[in-house]
Structure formats: C-alpha cells, structure tokens
Amino acid sequence: MEKVLQWSAATLAVCAYSSMAAAQQADNSMNPAISMVLQGQYADYKQDPEVYELPGFMLAGEAGLAEAGFGLGHGELVMSSNIDDLYFGKLTLAIAEHEGATEIELEEAYIETLGLGSGLTVKAGRFFSNVGYLNSQHTHAWDFADAPLVYRGLFGNQLIDDGIQLRWLAPTDIFLQVGAEMGRGERFPAGGASDEGKGSQAFFIELGGDVGVSHSWQLGVSHWSAEIAGRQSGGHAHDGGAVEIPSYTGDSDVTAVDVVWKWAPDGNFAQRNLKLQFEYFKRDEDGSVELENSGPPVETTTYQGKQTGWYAQAVYQFKPQWRVGVRYDSLESDNTGSDADVLGEAGLDDEGHKPERTSIMFDYAHSEFSLVRLQFNQDKSYETADDQIYLQYVMSLGAHGAHQF
Amino acid sequence: MQNLKWLIGACIFCIALPSQAALQIFACEPEWASLSETLGGDKVKVYSATTAKQDVHRIQARPSLIAKMRRADLVVCTGAELETGWLPLLLQRASNRKVQPGQPGYFMAAEQVERLDIPHVVDRSMGDVHAGGNPHVHLDPHRVAEIARHLAERLAQIDSANAGFYQSRLADFEQHWQAAIESWQQKSEALKGLPVVVHHKDWRYLLDWLGMKEIATLEPKPGLPPNASHLARLKKQMEEQRAAMILRSAYQDNRPSEWLADKADIPAVELPYTVGGSDAANDLFGLFDDTLARMLKAIKQ
Fold first, then answer.
1. Interface confidence (ipTM) of the complex
2. B251:A172 CB<8 A
3. Which chain A residues are within 8 Å of B253, Cβ to Cβ?
4. Which stretches of chain B score pLDDT less than 50?
5. Residue A400: DSSP 8-state
6. Are B175 and B229 contained in the same domain?
7. 3-class SS at A13?
C-alpha cells in the first residue's frame, strides 16, 4: 500500500513537473531570438591615445581610440522577433566602458514591415542609416578592429538616427533598391533636432548581382543631409577655465559611393574567398562654429567645410578559419572661415596634414561563432605617426547570426 | 485581313501567356529545384540559389538572391535550420509577403518528414548542431517521395488552375520513383552493414536507408574543418575498426579524405550529394543511380 502511494505520488509529481515544463515551453516559444556579442581587446600604442586627433575633422561619438592595455570592447545584447505577420522588431543594447563607468546605450530599436507588397518596406525607430556600405553593419561584423578613418571623422564611427526609412526593391533580375530616410537629426553628426525633429534626410540607391557563379558585387550611391543646430564635438579646457566645446550650426551634405566585390571558387565561401571593398565620402558644410563657454564675448567664426575621405580594403580567407586583410585610409579637408584661430581651436584646421593609415590584420575563426584577431596599424592621423597593435576577440552567443553580404 | 491580324495577335498572346504566368520558384538547394521542375514541368520557372559545389551552411544573403526572392511565388528550402544564416535575412530583405513563414509560398522540405538525431540537449560546444534534427533529408528516397506529395499539394494550392496537372505529374513521378527505389534496394544489398567514415554528417539519411554504419566523421565537431590531430586519431581508429570507405561530397575539401584514404588504405569516394554534383547526377534519379554506382565501385576495388 505504502509502495503504491509512493509510486502514485511520484507519478503525480512527474505529471505536475512535465505539465509545468510544457506550460513554460509554451510561454517561451514566443520569446524573441536572443543573441549576445562579447568583445574585448588588448591595445598597444607608441603614442599616448589620449592626444589622438584628426586635424580638419570634429571628433565626437565613439571616435577616439580604445584605451591602452586590456579593455572590453563593445558588448551587445540583441533581441528580435516577428511581431505578427506584418511586422518584425529588433532591439540592440550596446554595453561599453567609458572611463571606468559602464554605459548601456540603445543602439537599435526598430520595427520593419514583412512585405507590404510591390517590394516596399518601411522601417521605423532607431536604426543604422543605409548610407555607405559598412555603416549598417555592427562592429562585430567588421573585418578590422576599428572603424575606417572616414567613418571616424565624419560620423563618430557610425551614422544612427531615430526616424523612418522607406525602401523599394525593383522586380528585376539585377538587384536594384532605392530608398529614403528621414530622421530626427539629434545625434552626431547632426544635432539640435531641427525642423521640429525632422532634421536629417538620406537617399540611397543600390545595385548588385553575380558575374558567373564565382563572383558577386554590390554598388551603392547615397546622400545624407541635415540642418544642424549646435553639433557639439570634443572640447578642451584652458588652464583652469571652463571646457570650451566647439559647436557647429548650419547645413551638412554627405555624398557616398561604395563598391563591394566578392569572389569564391565555385561560389563556395567555406573554403577560400576574397572580399574587396571601397568607399568614398565627401562632405560639404556651410554655417558657423562657436566655442561654447569661451569669452565673453563668445568666440565664433563662419565655417565652410570641405572634407573627403576614402578607404580600400581586401580580406582573403586562404583556408577555412583563417583570413588576412589589408586596409588603407586617406582623408583630406579644406575648411575655411572668417576666424582661422577659432577654426583651429575647434579642430577644423587641417594643420597642413593629410591623415592616412595603413592596417594589416590576421584573424582566426575557430567556428562561425568565435573570432580572434591581431591587427597592426601605422596611423598617421595627425603629425606624429603612431604604431598600433590590437589583439581582439569577438564572440557570438545565442541565436545564429545572419550572413550579410 | 484585319481580323486575321487580330487572330494572330490573340494566338501569340495565348502562347505567350503560360510562360508569363509560370509559377516562379526559388529553391534553396539543387535537389529541391530538381523536384520542383519534375512536378511543375512547364508550369513553373525554377531558380536554384546554390549549386552542388557550395556548402549551403555558408551561403551569404547576396544581392542577386534578394532580387530572385523578391519575385518568387514559392520558396522551397530544406528548413530545419540548415539555411539559418541566410534564409531569414533573404526573407526580410526581399519584401515579398507571399513567401513569408506561414504563407502557402513558404515550403520547408525537411519539416514535412520525420527527422533523425533531434538532440535532447543543444549546446554550441557540440559544434554547429541543429536543434530541429539532421536536416539533410534528401538522400533518403522514401522521404523524398513523401516530400514530393506535400510539394505537389502545395503547388496545387498556390496554382489551383493547374491542380490536376500537378497531381498527374506527381502520379507519374511516384510510379517511376517506386520502381527506382526497388531497383536501388536490390543493387545496394552488398552495401548493407558496411561501416563508413564521412566528412560531415550529411549522409545520415542515405546510410540509414541503406543500412550502413557511420563510425567516424572527418570533422572533429559538426561544422569545424578536419584538423591534423583528429585525422591522426582516425588513422589509429581505422587500424582497429576498419571502414569500407570514406565519403565526401563535391563541395567538401578533398584533402582530408584523400589523406586518410592513403594512410589507412581505404577508398575515398566523392559522391554527388545533390543534383549537379556529378555529370551523371543530372536529376534526382541520376543522383541516386550515381551515388550507388560510385559506392559499389569502391567496394569492388
């Protein structure tokens, strides 16, 4: 009798447990796909990274160098899911250390339609702009440990805005996509959320296709413009005085061209493949710069900015798991204004220098989900050349990442 | 005379119409492209996203694929997470409502049949395992037959005007397929019970059907390329437990299997794996004919 009781109690317990598990599973089955990225690096510099500058460009955002020595990179927590049969949603939290404090930033938070019909897609929320090629890719998908100089100089690494994107995919054999974005224009390199919170616009056109079975390519032309009311960049203090912060107000126009070419024998990327990538950016600005907290009177100048930059890179996977890459960066600026001293204090004087950088990297991906990278830069961003070494890891946890082109 | 012109015009229109209205099918792999063509005949226009020379785990969502999916009426893929790195991204970028999950235009072949090796525990330390079980179902002809029935049904649902056509194509296919299975089973008697080494676990269903035994894989973990220390271990294993052959597909590196074949004196066999993987594997019938012919040739040597 006792045995029977024990047995039935055990059965009941098992039943209760399994129905609980089933209920839990049913609850969890609608959970979003969750993935995480862990990054970290060891950085070694010949020069002090604190004095880094890019003459002729106002630096802000995440544009500086990583701290010397051991440091955590940009961690990410990503959640995404179809919302219903019409919408998809995604949230990306970026977790980073800034001067000893942990900062959590909302990097992406957007919804997107799943086929409105006629090839139209609407995206809304906070998202990476489709300007350029690399801009819409997360740092963990980059082929190098740091952003191209032109992204650092123009966008503070990446162009992100809150707004709306409309794009149309043509019903053609060749890939042809056109799109437009309208954004709030509050985040760097815009600022001030002008025009009642509709301060930035972008347009893009993309073409792409295959050549035979082994080659594929993509070509993009894009344009970004904003009306900027007070774009702040990194400031500096004069002997005990308040920190003077350069602030730009005026128009900004960026035009970009990007080309990507990929090759893999028989189109089989698992064995060997080569990726060639080139991007060119040109920015024209017309307005004024003032140094906040200076004076009185506040120091100010008119500003006509002409900045261009490009980079070219090649990454070759010579056998499964192993890749080698080279990159060359070049920037140029020709900025003028009514007060050259103020321009100089704002970092907009090119100091007769054309920033350039040469990089070489090796990486090893044990599986699709892990990567260890060693990178050398010869960085001539400013007058004094710097030798930089990065040893980095990039690890993906959770839901399988997407194989972007 | 004027009437004749109209008549000719109308006739051209009639002839042109069927090709205009052909169902656009986007197949992720050549085996499903071939099955779709077999069942759809001239009522469908099929595009295969990959070839037999490509590792389908590692495909990128390249622009040409997005453009093709944009115009598809039906997407026929393996599913069960095989294309997890690129199919969801294509679906998202292609902006085509007809082929989204849950729509009739979304057909996942492996999800129509029972799958083997569904893991109780999934962890990435086990390699690139699929929580939905082994997805490489197309090398079991019985499962192919079951998938064909479901696919014909789906074609009839999407293109109901030609429902009868698809049903008769299916009946025709089934008749030939059943006869072929019988002949393959007779031919493959000699293979039954033989132990084999495989490059990747993509022969699971073929070996299960033929009653063969997989005793080792060249990959140390699913998705990780073979390395020297693992191959050395396999060489030792072969001294105690000899395999009849080492199998690889057309898209896999031939060096690891050739190395082990040489060291352990076991034949290495390259099988077509899918349609287009060899000259003889020009459709699903040719695929199985050639697969068996190559394996039988290896054991005769």
1. 0.90
2. no
3. 271, 320
4. 1, 7, 10-19
5. P
6. no
7. helix
Domain region containing B208: 189-300
Q: Encoding tokens for residue A97?
A: 């250390």
CB contact under 8 Å between B224 and A367, yes or no, is yes
Q: What is the rounded distance in angstroms from the CA atom of residue A195 to the CA atom of residue A166?
A: 20
Q: Given an 8 Å threshold on Cβ–Cβ distance, is A266 in contact with B58? A: no
pLDDT at B43: 97
Which among B163, B183, B203 is the end of a domain? B183
CA distance B294 to B286: 12
Q: Is residue B59 part of a domain?
A: yes
Considering only the C-alpha atoms of chain A, give the largest distance between any 2 of them, rounded to a whole number of Å: 100
The predicted model scores a pTM of: 0.90
- Residue B154 belongs to a domain: yes
Binary contact (B63, A366; C-beta < 8 A): no
Residue A200 contacts residue A180 (beta carbons within 8 Å):
no
Angular region, B153: left φ>0, alpha ψ -120 to 50, beta rest: alpha
What tens digit of pLDDT does each residue of A183-208 get?
A: 999 999 999 999 999 999 999 999 99
Whose CA is closest to A264, among B58, B90, B63? B58
Residues B155 and B96 placed together within one structural domain of the fold: yes
**What span, in angstroms and rounded, lies between the C-alpha atoms of A273 and A263?**
6
At residue A379's C-alpha, the angle toward residues A373 and A380, to 5°, is 170
B18 occurs within a structural domain = no
- Domain membership of residue B249 (yes or no) is yes
Residue at token pair 């490059």: B199
Q: Classify residue B221 as exposed, middle or buried by CB count within 10 Å of its CB (0-12, 13-18, 19+).
A: middle
Phi, psi of A343 (to 5 degrees): -55, -45
Pairs of CB atoms within 8 A across A/B? 131
* CB contact set of A300 (below 8 Å; sequence gap of 6+): A288, A289, A290, A291, A339, A342
CA distances from A205 to A149, A165, A167 (A): 24, 13, 9
Residue of A nearest to B129 (CA): A400
| CATH number of the domain enclosing B174 | 3.40.50.1980
CA–CA separation, A267 and A352 (whole Å):
46
DSSP string, A199-260: -EEEEEEEEEEEETTTEEEEEEEEEEEEEEEEEE---EE-TTSPEEEEEEEEEEEEEEEEEE
Question: For chain B, what is the domain count?
Answer: 2
- Residue A25 pLDDT > 80: no
